[in-house]
Specification:
single chain; 3 helices; 6 strands
Length: 146
């Protein structure tokens, strides 16, 4: 009887611990995808940056919505030029994972010079990611700055 009670008690504690460990691993994977996406933009690697985007991604910025095709056709070049000319520092970031979906939110400060003007802006970023057979992919981005 004691061994049964001990086994049940251990199972009760082990299950949440295992779930938390798996959950933490997913959070780290999501952070890595977001950071790798930004690093690819900063280094001018549009192919890698676009590879982190889900085929049905929707990107909101400046009151506009873009599909992957629209982003690939134009906006990604501007984001690469801006990222190369400025320094983006993440001030705060959080990840929440629900099964095969994740929410990444951050605030940042961007400084530098772009197209002849000084940049010192605060920004917010929201990304929704989904787990695919190829790994986590960004399904939605919303950027806002002031």
């Amino acid at each position: 009887m004691r061994s049964l009670i001990l086994s049940l008690a251990l199972a009760a504690f082990a299950t949440p611990l295992a779930a938390q460990t798996a959950h933490a691993g997913s959070e780290d994977e999501v952070r890595d995808v977001v950071q790798s996406f930004h690093s690819a933009l900063e280094s001018g690697d549009s192919t890698t940056a676009l590879g982190y985007l889900h085929p049905e991604v929707v990107i909101y910025e400046g009151g506009h919505a873009e599909t992957l095709a629209q982003y690939r056709a134009g906006h990604v070049r501007g984001d690469i030029a801006f990222a190369a000319a400025t320094n983006r520092e993440v001030v705060e970031a959080a990840v929440t994972v629900w099964g095969d979906q994740a929410l990444y939110t951050s605030t940042s400060r961007t400084t530098g010079q772009y197209r002849g003007r000084e940049i010192d802006s605060r920004g917010t970023e929201t990304m929704v990611l989904v787990r695919t057979p190829e790994g986590w992919r960004i399904r939605h981005i919303h950027w806002s700055s002031r």
